[in-house]
UniProtKB/TrEMBL annotation:
Cofactor(s) needed by this chain: (6R)-5,10-methylene-5,6,7,8-tetrahydrofolate; FAD
Designated name of the protein: Cryptochrome DASH
A Pfam family of this chain: DNA_photolyase
Cofactor descriptive note: Binds 1 5,10-methenyltetrahydrofolate (MTHF) per subunit.
Family annotation (NCBIfam families): crypto_DASH
Marked site (Electron transfer via tryptophanyl radical) residue numbers: W315, W368, W391
Binding site for FAD: 231, 244-248, 284-291, 381-383
Limits of the Photolyase/cryptochrome alpha/beta domain: 3-135
The species this protein was found in: Halobacillus litoralis
Annotated function: May have a photoreceptor function.
Gene3D superfamilies per record: 1.25.40.80, DNA Cyclobutane Dipyrimidine Photolyase, subunit A, domain 3, HUPs
Amino acid sequence: MSTYSIVWFRNDLRVHDHKPLTRAVMAGYPVIALYIFDPYEYRDLSYGFKKTGRHRAQFIQESLEDLRTNLAELNVPLVIRYKDPADAFLELSDYLTINGVYLHEEIATEEQQTERGVRKALPGVPFYVDHGHNLFPPEDLPFSIKDVPGTFSQFRKRIEKIGMMPPQALAPPQTAVKSELPNKLEEGKIRGAAVSGREVQREEARYRGGSTAAKRRLRDYIFTKDRLRIYKETRNGMLLEDDSSKFSPYLANGNLSPRVVYEQIQHYERAYTKNESTYMLYFELLWRDYFHLVHRKYGDRFFYKTGLTGLEIPWKTNDEHLQAWMDGRTGYPLVDAGMRELKQTGFMSNRARQNVASFFTKNLGLDWRIGAAWFESQLVDYDVSSNYGNWLYTAGVGNDAVSFRAFNVEKQAEDYDPDGDYLRCWLPELRELPVPWIFKPREMGMIEQEQYGVHLGEDYPFPIIDLYESMREMKTAFEEASK
């Protein structure tokens, strides 16, 4: 049998700044890229929804289509399989001799278990593992993982104090040794969206997956539209495409390396201007690194009900409230607009995410892990460390936790959507409501309901809970748990 190097792609669907791919090509053997649709990642969860929803599955499918094209230019075929990863590697070993498996490290429990299963199936085959998801490799940091600072501010100051710079991003590798796939070994079709249950029509999908689309967005946002210049002023906007960078889907799925983003920020600063906005985008990349490091430090505790603090919060169980939240039918416009946007597009702004998560934990009082799982299912930019790190933080059981932090979702709508445009976009039944009624339709009397054609309980739901009473109740619960 012929000998091949195997590059195992997972959340790193690109050819630039991809050290495992570069190392495999340099090893001198023909290279095969492998991506596996693991049924475990597409299963139905006990909460009543899929672990990977249709929008994320569609984004992955498009990313793989783009990756296959880019790899072909390097003489690297992309093999797709739909089975347990250990079985997929065993299938390959029936057709060829595996010189080595090249991959990026994943730190989450499930991914590590999967990797152990593959290693067990391939005794004697070397695995070459590299870091590639963050700005800074862990071994370059001025502290060990067990000493990762307890707050983001402490982490940021440690990095900036020594003037730490990320390693330079790698260019795509040279072409690999040209070779055909072994006889009867098929590449396999890419049909990820179908695995999730229902395909997304192109007009429904907000973002196209793949490095080609990622690089276009990077160029357009920073240079063509010159939006980086005002990022700090616009980043809390919830409606417009260019309010924020929208790099997160591409970073989460590995279409774009964070080091490439960093280098483009540096290029912009040298060529145009260096200001608070250019720093703020770098600041957000640091947050991404920090959540990854906190995840490394605490491991499985990232997914515990009690989080990193060990607080025994009496989270509630209420299926009706959960469904209303997921469907955007809570009676609170900002929450409902955000949740409908998420369900329809697979995306939601950071400002909206903070509000819907705060409402979920500090008003509804539901188990934060269910909210995190729904985000995992729906978001095209799902990243395990950032998603669970943010939910831990919002739930009050993560790093940098304070006694009780909650958003007033009505005031937040007034502050960040003062004209109600975001609410009207996603809540068509409220489009005729002027300010201030669009922020608080619950306060309309019968006269206003008739005047604007919005009848509470019919056109738009009554609030499922009292905003202030529920917040007081959860605050008391937190205080009791903290004693």
